[in-house]
Amino acid sequence: SSKVLSTSQNRGRRCKESPTNSLSTMRFTSATVAALLLANTDVASAFSVRPPITANPLQTQSHQRLSPLNFAEVSGGMEELQELTEDKRANAFEKQVRKSPSFWKLAGYASIPVSAALGFGLVPSRRLAAHAAGAVITGVAGAIGKSRLDLITETAATPAIAQAIIDHGVNDPTTTNGYIREIQTQFGIVDDEEFEAMCADVYSKYLLGMVKFNPMTKTSEPKELENLKTALGLSNLMVGEAHGAAAAEWYRTTCLFTPEEDLEDPDHPDRQAMDKFLFLTERALSRGEETPEAFKYEMTRVAKAMNLSLMEAMERVTDVNEPFYARALKSTRAKLGSGQVSQSTLEKARISLGISEETARDMHVSCLNQEVRDLLGLATGDDDDDTVVDKATAQFSEGARERLDELKEILGLTDEDVDYEISAEATPLYQETALAAMKDVLAGAGSSDDAWEKMEVRRKQLLLPESKSKDLISSMVMQALGGPLEETNKFAKVNNEAAVYENLKEALEAKQALISILTKSGWDAFDDFDNTFCDPWNRQSANGFLRSDERIKMYKIFLNRTVLKSRDGSITDEMYDIIKQTKGLLGISDDQAEVEARSAFGPEVQKACLRAMTEIVADYTPELATNMKKDIDDAMAKYRLSEEFLREQGAIYYAKAVSQIGEKAPGGIPNKQMNEALNALQDMFKIAKEDTYAAHMEAFGRVYKKSIVEAMGSTGVIRDEFKESLAQLRERLGVREEDTKELFLEAIEEKFVPMIKWINSEMERTMLNQKQLSERRGKDMGEDMFQSGKVADGVLGLGAEVNIMGDIMNLVDFYAENDIAEQVEAGTKEVDGEEVPVFETSYPITALGSDALDQEMAEYLYRQFVVGAFTAQGEQAGRYEGARASFGGILGLTSEKMEEINDNIGTAVYDNFVSRTMATKGALDQQDMMFLANINGKLGLSSEQSEKLLMQSQKKVLSEEINTLMDDNPSPEGLKAFREKCNVMGMDLAEDVGISTPRLVRMFESEIVPGLKSGEITVDSSDILTEIQESLNLDPEECESMFEAVLLRLSKQAMDLINAELLRGREENTVDMIKELVRYAAFVDGDLGLTVEEPTAWQTFNIYEAFDFGDEDAEVIEANKELLKNALGINQ
Hints:
The chain is an all-alpha fold. Helices cover 70% and strands 2% of the residues.
């Protein structure tokens, strides 16, 4: 002690000499003092509040004995905590603090006064002040020592927590939690969050130990972690933090030695450890009853720390927990009948392992399936032996159904689930027996009754319900019937027709045998056998394995061989029935069967039809027709061909007959005998009248068209008497009215096109000069053609002025008299609550449709016709107006285009008339309106259209007029007259005339300013302002603002002039301007916003006061004086 004291004194002296070393000296001194006082451990124990925490000697050897968890082996978490408590890096001082934490806390608190006392006594001096200084210095050193002691104490708390877990285990987490809370008190850790962080660190290390020492997962470990959480008193948040920190630490240390590709290998220990960590994390978070959002966040954080996505992590969890649950299900099967398992037991296991209800159901169904296979003696996937099961003898033993029902209840499944699994596993076994029995019947080795008995016995052995017999047998029929067809196809491939024929007959016999077996199962859909079992588009059907060409080839062979084997080459009813059965067996469609029949026997019928056509056309008699018809009917009956085939072939031969008769008929028109011959062929070939029109049009159409052209004559119009003759000719030729309509239009078009081209040519000569005409027609038209249409002295010798209107009317008459236009239904409309059709005129032949005109010329012709009709007078004008719409339709113009042209013409007419009339009269009167109504009729304008055109024309005239007025200095009189004119016409200046707002403002100012200056507009006559505002249709508030601005501007101008005159000494010149100023002041009670110097203001007022007011009312004079004073700013 004296040595230590001497050392302290020497160091004290050195502190005085070197102040820079005082801090290190004080620290050393404090530590020395602490070592001096507490060198003996017994002393430390004497100051301890509680006995030191010591390890249980039985538990310190945990690696040799079972841990307190009572598991089959030592918990990896416990081993990790054991390493934590045995940390070799801790020095003796830290270990001493672990043993007596309470004492060291007290020592820390006592270090300051003890150090101060020592300093007081150790500093050598005779002066009291020196001792005090020494006490202060050593006291500071003691404070620093206390901080060091606190840090060491708190660091020692974490191993102490771990030791408490080791000592007391986690089987009773509540008791263990009490010991851990005492540690917080013993170590003096006041901050609960700090202590919880220490506990979370212990949890994290425990978790790492669980995956480090054993990568294989145990079912008890989730519960072990849950107990550890309770023992440590951790919140869900801290558990999540602990798992996140542990995940990052595990992945970091693991990747130092393990490549990432090894972590992808499911058999690698580190990969297994990773999956175990994820499983334990998922269980810890789920058992904490976190919200879905919190669970997703924490689980994602752990997954990210291991370089995985959340989905990948959850898949890893599934790979861990499902095998556990599968073993539980296997154990359940093993314990059936013992009463040791129940549905609730499985439910607890499911929840404990975190298996979802959907996954659990799938695993339950799989478990049931394994039990079914096990009861049948089939491999389940769990068998270790390679025993070969005889499927022919595999069957359920007695009590199997009861066992399955018990398992069903435990697994929470339904009877339907059990039936399905039995059916899925037993059906192939049943089908194997059924197929063998059917093949025996087909081979003649047994009867259908024997086969049925075998199948029934097998069905009962396999617990298949009787109600399923029909469906089970039906599926076997396809396979059984497919064998004979496969054999037949082999012969067909080598063209062995005889073998094909015989095998198909045997297949038909097999079909009947199978039907007898089906009947015993309750199947009765005999008429639907082929559709059910022989559908060629179903790969599982009896013929589904055959290609289409293979089936057709076999059918064709059977068909031909059947006819060859008949006595007279005809198909009897019995043979026909066999052919139909074969057709169904091979899945041949009706259309394909017809094709094959036509191919095989069609030539015989064609030969009969050709002979009949040739004989009847050459020399027809009724007896001949009867005999030929009998030959054809016999051939059809012999080969069972359809009437449709006869009609198709007959139509060909009938067309040839019509053509031959057309060539031999005089003038191309058949006589009565020829028509009778054609009618006989129609009946013989069973051809409908409608099907003969095409042939007759082909043969006689040109004759009918020629007759139409002849009936037109030179005028181009068919007279009524000729129309009746044409109708009779149509009947004689056997052509339809609709077809002759086309011929009629073709003939009409031959006359129509030249008429259009003539009108076009004359219009071009009228409207174009020689150069334009040459360019349009692409050739030199000569120098003697002029735009006027008159002929020069050239050699062309064209007539004088062309009468285009007359040519157009001839065209319209041609169209009307030949009744070319048609009325077609264009829609419906409602009349008196009923829908009635609406018809419009259709023009089947048009100038544009015939390419006789282009669009531009068609529009120009129509425009010229409308203008010509407008200028025409008398009866001719009425004809033109009536033909206007017809001519537009004949040209091919749409109603919209015609309306557009009419509007353009109407606009021009209205503009000219309205502008001329308003220029002379100023406005339109009743006579003018009547004239416009007449124009409407001529142009075909509706009232709405005429009103629109009138408004547009008036607007144009008025716009031009106001432009003229406003270009010069507008006079109030002119503006007033203009707006009154617009008002009388009902025209709004802005909306109808189109005058802009700025111009309306200018009109307003231009009209009121002269009135204000002249005195015409005063306060007493302010209604003039209202009249102008309403006439211009301006907003009242806007007008008020404009008027006020004008008033202030005029007032300022007047005052400026007054000032100028007063400066020049011409007071007499200010009289009128002062009166003007008074008038302006009257509108605003003198508030004119003037800024006038006081001398000038009084001078102005004195001049006004000196006026001779004559007989003016004294009150008015005084009021005006007050207004002037207000305006000049001198009113007191």
